Task: inverse folding
């Protein structure tokens, strides 16, 4: 577990920057060492994507879509306050993981099917299925994949510039 100060230091970002990301992505704030490794990994991913020149508006749009998909798949019923970031930092099965929540959806992202209807809650089931109420997890997944594809293309276009900048900066004198 981490404190807020430890996270700002690990991210090399100011407290104002980190608290701004928390507010804009509607993340819960904790007292003391209340921040999990997954929480820090999510912030690390956002920081890296911003360094790759990915607009924060696009990241927030994808964040909302991924959270909506996870709600349709009932991942939010597991009881955790941070259910939407508990998978951040996991490294297995990257081909099955969403970009920001890093949740493993169980099938490769390119698949055209999902296992819907799972519900980990102890609550009573809804009267109508989500699809009958206008919510379709496959539609939301397609929207996620479409936006994710644009972001991945933007990352690929930016990588040569990042590599060139790192190569340019390597011989600079190190000051402490």
Result:
């Amino acid at each position: 577990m981490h404190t807020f100060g430890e996270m700002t230091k690990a991210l090399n970002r100011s407290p104002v920057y980190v608290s701004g990301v928390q507010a804009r992505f509607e993340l819960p704030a904790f007292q003391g060492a209340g921040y999990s490794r997954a929480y820090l990994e999510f912030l690390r991913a956002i920081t890296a994507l911003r360094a790759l020149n990915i607009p924060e508006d696009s990241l927030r749009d994808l964040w909302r879509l991924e959270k909506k998909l996870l709600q349709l798949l009932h991942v939010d019923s597991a009881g955790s306050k941070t259910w939407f970031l508990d998978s951040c930092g996991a490294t297995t099965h990257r081909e099955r993981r969403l970009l920001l929540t890093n949740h493993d959806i169980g099938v490769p992202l390119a698949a055209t099917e999902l296992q819907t209807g799972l519900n980990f809650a102890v609550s009573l089931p809804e009267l109508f299925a989500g699809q009958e109420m206008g919510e379709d997890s496959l539609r939301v997944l397609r929207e996620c994949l479409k936006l994710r594809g644009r972001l991945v293309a933007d990352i690929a276009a930016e990588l040569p510039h990042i590599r060139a900048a790192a190569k340019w900066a390597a011989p600079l004198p190190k000051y402490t």
Observations:
- The helical segments are 4-11, 15-24, 37-51, 56-72, 137-169.
